């Protein structure tokens, strides 16, 4: 597995975990989606710089 494949799998798992479908995660607000957005921005910058 390459680093890109691992990052995609981790990102998909984080996206599934951020969906407020379970009772324990309904009160989290925008925290998980904000973290996901930050991770996406960092990954996009790394891709554009040619590091990934």
From TrEMBL:
- What InterPro entries does UniProt report for this protein, alphabetically? DUF3309 (IPR021738)
The residues that cross the membrane are: 30-49
* Protein name from the UniProt record: DUF3309 family protein
Q: Which UniProt keywords apply?
A: Membrane, Transmembrane, Transmembrane helix
